[in-house]
Amino acid sequence: MKFVLASSNREYEVEIIDRDGSTVRARIDGAEVVARMETTALGRVVRLDGETFRVFDAAQRDSLAVAVGPAHFTFKTAAGVRRRAHASGALQVTAPMPGKVLKVLVVEGQVVAAGVPLITLEAMKMETTLCAEGAAVVAKIHVAPETKVDHGAVLIDLGPAPSPTGSN
Fold first, then answer.
1. How many Cα atoms sit within 13 Å of 110 on the Cβ side?
2. Span of 36-45, 118-127, 148-157 with lowest mean pLDDT
3. Secondary structure (H, E, C), 20-40
4. Which residues of 35-68 are buried (b: 16+ CB within 10 A; e: fewer)?
5. Distant-in-sequence, close-in-space partners of 131: CB < 8 Å, separation ≥ 6
6. Paired strand residues for 48
7. What is the pLDDT of residue 161?
8. Which pTM was predicted?
9. For residues 108, 102, 96 and 131, what is the CA-based torsion angle, rounded to 10 degrees?
10. 12, 113, 148, 167 — which has fewest CB within 10 A?
11. Partners of 28 in the β-ladder
């Protein structure tokens, strides 16, 4: 999964390698990190390289705000919807990270506009809502709530939006 640091447009490649309970092994721009997430009397903390930091995060429709110690960042996902290699121009909504489907917010056959929320995923106790990038029709839903998915798994197929009535 790729994230863009909103304040600098710097892109980070993030891959979750393994998650065992509260311990997470990840690769960030090729460098492996191991972090342990805990809930203490101070709130949520992350232990990383022998240091402990308080962590606050808030998932928004198209971004993730994170505060670690005194530093704060806003990230946007750089991917999430990709074009199929079909002449039809159909789109696939794919899982930007491994996780669990919390909610499917659309139904097959539904016409959606740009920005309409399609599906909510949970990964590492954070929620991410994937939205339509443009007008489309929900052609096929491949998952249901509680489904565990891997990075890149196809969640929803989108088809071209119907033509406006009255146009030739």
1. 15
2. 36-45
3. ECCEEEEEECCEEEEEEEEEE
4. bebeeeeeeebbeeeeeeeebebebeeebbebee
5. 61, 62, 114, 115, 116, 117, 118
6. 35, 51
7. 79
8. 0.49
9. 50
10. 167
11. 14, 31
- Among 56, 54, 76, smallest CA distance to 66 is for 56
Q: Residues 100-119: what's their mean pLDDT?
A: 91
The pLDDT assigned to 58 comes to: 66
Q: Which residues contact 58 (CB under 8 A, 6 or more apart)?
A: 64, 65
Instruction: Give residues with Cβ within 8 angstroms of 87, minimum separation 6.
Output: none
Q: How confident is the model at residue 103 (pLDDT cuts 50, 70, 90)?
A: very high
Mean pLDDT (the chain, rounded):
77
| Contacts of the segment 81-85: beta carbons below 8 A, 24+ positions apart | 81/130, 81/132, 81/133, 81/158
Q: Where in the chain is the domain with CATH 2.40.50.100?
A: 81-160
Per DSSP, the three-state class of 155 is: strand
**What's the rounded Cα separation, in Å, for the pair 98 and 152?**
8
Q: Which distant-in-sequence residues (6+ apart) come within 8 Å of 34 by Cβ?
A: 23, 24, 25, 48
Measured distance CA(31)–CA(122) in Å, rounded: 24
Residue 117 has a CB neighbour count (10 Å cut-off) of 15
